[in-house]
Amino acid sequence: MPAAEDKKQLTSRAPVRRPSGAAWVRRFPTSKRTDDLASPFRENVERFIAALRAAGASVTISATLRPPERAYLMHWSWSIVNRKTDPRNVPPRNGVDIQWDHVDPLGEYASQASLAGATAMVNAYGIRNLRVAPALNSRHIEGNAIDMTIGWRGTLTVEDAQGNVVRIATTPRNGMNTLLHGVAASFGVIKFLGGDSDKSHWSNDGR
Prior knowledge:
This protein is an alpha+beta fold. It has helices spanning about 5-15, 40-55, 70-80, 110-125, 140, 180-185, and strands at about 20, 60-65, 100, 145-150, 155-160, 165-170, 190, 200-205. A hairpin with a 5-residue loop joins strand 5 and strand 6.
């Protein structure tokens, strides 16, 4: 095969990279199903949620298992926007054909377009106000974490994992209630207390 034809064939096989932008947020979605969690955390969470609902509390799940590809996109888009990483230096990941470093019509690096693409992703992911980049490896990726919003009115009377009845009359009447944390811990569901940026996060070890 002639060298020119061989080169053309190799070029045609090269993966097409798609510029960063908000459209990436729809790919590799995070699950909201407890079925996707790892055992025994899955069973622990389901028992805790069942106890809450039996007591009249509302529980809304926003995230369980997160694909590692989504974590990669969230991590590096945040890092670019917060000037921690040059878009040209983001390491590639198999299965994610994103182009972080945009180019202009002449094929030259376009810094503003690259920043705009990452910014659109950060805004769409809802992570603009995070103080640190989303983790590349986390309990969500392992299937050992859940983000859920919990609420109730008045006094919550709930059974812990041992069948003890716990009355929670203190505020706040949501997932930040310290008495509720004790009930959750009896099921093996530990509240993350790392700050206000992730109030809905629970895991198998509080991380």
